[in-house]
Amino acid sequence: MDEYETLKWGEVMSDHLQYLEEKRKIDSYFEKGYQIVSIFENLSGTFVDFVTSNDSGEREIVQLQLLTAESRKYIASKLIIN
Amino acid sequence: MSTLTGGQISLNLIDNFKEIHPGLTKREAIEEANRCLYCYDAPCIKACPTSIEIPKFIKKIATGNLKGSAKTILEANPIGASCARVCPTEELCEGACVLNNETKPISIGHLQRYATDWAMQQREPLFEVGEKNGKKVAIIGSGPAGLSAARELSLLGYEVTIFEAQQEAGGLNRYGIVSFRLPTEVVQWEVEQVKQLNVDIKTNTVVGVDITTEELLNQFDRVVVAVGMGNVPHLGIEGETLKGVYDAIEFVKRTKMDELTDDLVGKRVTVIGAGNTAIDAATTAVRLGAANVKIVYRRTKNEMTAYQFEYDFAKQDGVEFRWLTTPTKIIGNEQNEVVGLECLKMELGEVGVDGRQKPIPVQQSEFVLETDVVIKAIGQSRHLLLIEGFGLEHSKGVVEVNPETYQTSKEKIYACGDVIFGNGQGEAMVVTAAQQGKEVAEAIHRSFVLQSEIV
Amino acid sequence: MADLRISFAGIKSPNPFWLASAPPTNSGYQVQRAFEAGWGGAVWKTLGEPIINTTSRFAALSFNGQRVAGFNNIELITDRPLEVNLKEIYETKKRFPNHAIIASLMVEPKQEKWHEIVKRVEDVGVDGLELNFGCPHGMAERGMGAASGQVPELVEKQTYWVKEVAKTPVIVKLTPNITDITITAEAAVQGGADAISMINTINSLMGVDLDTWNTIPHVAGKGAHGGYCGPAVKPIALNMVGECARNPLIDVPISGIGGISNWQDAVEFILMGATGVQVCTAAMHHGFSIVEDMLDGLNNYLDSKGIASIMDIVGKAVPKYSDWGDLDLNYKVVARINNDVCINCNKCHISCEDTSHQCIDMLKNENGEPYLKVREEDCVGCNLCAIVCPVEGAINMVELKQPLPKMTWNERQSNIARFKIDKVAK
């Protein structure tokens, strides 16, 4: 009982779940073939612009705002891996 | 009370009745206080029947805030100075201390004494009377439960009168606990604290004799019965009226009322029973100069009700224990003086309802212990006359109460302390009585608030 | 038996433990007692124009009953004429030729003053000179000590003047009352210092009396700031030694000073770049005999590690001391509670809950017994719980292997920099 209550409460506070969500988005863009074109950082966090081009050569840009420290670390680590 | 200093008996009897432990020095107190981990959600608080915020009062000792420390203790426990001395701390707060298996537990009892001793020396009132609410409460008995209830009710604005049959207030703490464990001055101070809150204590006043129960119920809005227990009952064996046979309660009481006499010097003393009162009587006898003190008990060490520290203390005082021994007759001489105690050997049989093995006599095992004095300590009788005078429901003298509210079978009469202890109900500790007194006060206050009688 | 001898900028000493220039080295009597007790060297109480001291000079910080956690003084340099000190130095050196005697010096920042005192002191046979550019009180008000030690040009110039005439190694003692000690350390090196020592005491006011509202200590109801030292300053000193040791421009030996109370402290300073250490407060607290365990403990430590000479470990931890920007952001530790050892004081829970990242839960097992558990995914590995835990081994910080490669802040910034440029260009 206690465990359930505490965990539920912890989830509300959890940076970790927020990170997992942001990481999932980052990974999914990479999986879909998007590439990073720009990274911009300010007081509100890190903004990553992903771009992809389809067969007809149209460029599609999505911007992802990363709030958690873990994902701001993760995105840069991906640059090292890729 | 981890420090035992028994075993050193002086020829000057007064010395033997001085408080055993001298109290912590300032340095000892600060070192010990600094050892406290200041646990969060501390187990010592949960183990204290009065829920004293122990880490808080200890931290205050460490910072030199002794007034705050004493107040933290006494807020939770109006007789915290007595409890600092008589609580079985190793079974309560100190037993719960997280340092038990790590190093040694914090000496919470000694620290509590240090802070309350400071308060006793200051003579500065720590609490203020609450705004009068116009309600009157009578409390019968000024022992731990009665004093505690009186203090709390007074803070809540009640006009409180305590009726005490004895010459002085304090009850068990005043008369029943040996002074080398609990000096009279401590009890007097605690009584004084309650008096300072405008509580009227009428001593030498026996309810049912000096004032009738009806008068009481007419004059007061609520009545709290906190009369504790009575003297030791009869053994029901031959020779109980001989010279040299004492009731343990009376025996201890005498050392707290009159000047100490030397009539026990060099005598052989036998105490019957192995509860805390028996130990008190035995160690008192040692301190009165008895040459030999024995405790006879029909069961074994495992079944005795005395606390371990009490037992250890008696052993250090040189008290001998005769287990599995039951008295059958007190033998007198021609001058009606005790000369011996005829006993029977026992063995343990099947487990009884109380979970303890029943003692069974061993056939033809009679023998005689030579003794000059016999002290009976086989439990305490009940104040049946008063209980029945109020018409309270009870079971063998144990007043029945609602466990939530301490209300008796009569709506306006509450009961707490030893008068409701027994038959598997409650605990006989001083600290439990103090807590019950607090709870009775709360319950009485709630009863008025529910009825919107207090504006 | 490990070899405890050191050679510090050419100064030979039978062991690395020297008494710092302070009250313990005020006289020949004291220094000779110290050498008899086992100290390897002594930096004589600073010589200069004899001063006048106040009475009531010291004060100490007690923490939860532990006395002398920190120590503060408003005593100045020697109050005895130079000749008296020089005579005693000469006699002491004669009795203990193999021990190191260093003369601490302080004069006005004038070339001729420095020349004069250096020549006179070297004539009696000292093994080296220590220039006191650090004393923070009293002397500083007269333009000496910390007042000149806080100005890099004055440090360099005075060191240079001393070096013009000095025949023995010159150690420059630095003040910590400065934003970046490496600046003055570099100035000393520029001036030709053969070695540096640090730290001198830190500006401090020990306390205020709650009843009289006097400062602690006070002189007839008035106080002035003093110099702070003792165990509480050790981390500050250790950092300053480390910062100088890893600075390539400061390529001279360092004598470590500041809160060193036992052999463990000494080993830490030596690993962090000190070639020897100086001690004062610990000796003032307990007397000279404490050096016995310093020597014994150090020797046993070196033996247990299989190290032949103390000189072999000098600076061995320096490469591990770096800048924050060079720390691996993908290294991860988390707290793990050993419930078999835990005593359930819940200090970890409340410290984490109130002041860190709320990741230690107070739970109950199937028997209703309380236990504590870290939610590792939320744990940032700050160490706080392990720090407040009173039981050794109850909380361990364990490394979680990360799938991500090592990446420092500096690497991260250079990696995303090219993408940042794109953005700006738009």
Automatic annotation (TrEMBL), chain B:
Lineage: superkingdom: Bacteria
Stretches assigned to the 4Fe-4S ferredoxin-type domain: 26-57
PANTHER family, per the entry: GLUTAMATE SYNTHASE [NADPH] SMALL CHAIN, GLUTAMATE SYNTHASE [NADPH] SMALL CHAIN-RELATED
Name recorded for this polypeptide: NAD(P)-dependent oxidoreductase
Native source species: Ureibacillus galli
From TrEMBL, chain C:
Matches recorded under SUPFAM superfamilies: 4Fe-4S ferredoxins (SSF54862), FMN-linked oxidoreductases (SSF51395)
Enzyme class, first EC level, given as a word: oxidoreductase
Source domain of life: Bacteria
Segments forming domain 4Fe-4S ferredoxin-type: 333-365, 370-400
Catalytic activity, as annotated: 5,6-dihydrothymine + NAD(+) = thymine + NADH + H(+); 5,6-dihydrouracil + NAD(+) = uracil + NADH + H(+)
EC number: 1.3.1.1
InterPro entries hit by this protein: 4Fe4S_Fe-S-bd (IPR017896), 4Fe4S_Fe_S_CS (IPR017900), Aldolase_TIM (IPR013785), Dihydroorotate_DH_cat (IPR005720)
Pfam families named in the record: DHO_dh, Fer4_21
UniProt KW Iron-sulfur keyword: yes
Alphabetic keyword roster: Iron, Iron-sulfur, Metal-binding, Oxidoreductase
Molecular function terms, GO-annotated: dihydropyrimidine dehydrogenase (NAD+) activity
The keyword Iron-sulfur belongs to this UniProt entry's keyword annotation: yes
Family per similarity comment: Belongs to the dihydropyrimidine dehydrogenase family.
Family annotation (PANTHER family): DIHYDROPYRIMIDINE DEHYDROGENASE [NADP(+)]
Protein role: Involved in pyrimidine base degradation. Catalyzes physiologically the reduction of uracil to 5,6-dihydrouracil (DHU) by using NADH as a specific cosubstrate. It also catalyzes the reverse reaction and the reduction of thymine to 5,6-dihydrothymine (DHT).
Assembly and interaction partners: Heterotetramer of 2 PreA and 2 PreT subunits.
Name of this protein: dihydrouracil dehydrogenase (NAD(+))
Organism: Ureibacillus galli
Gene name of this polypeptide: preA
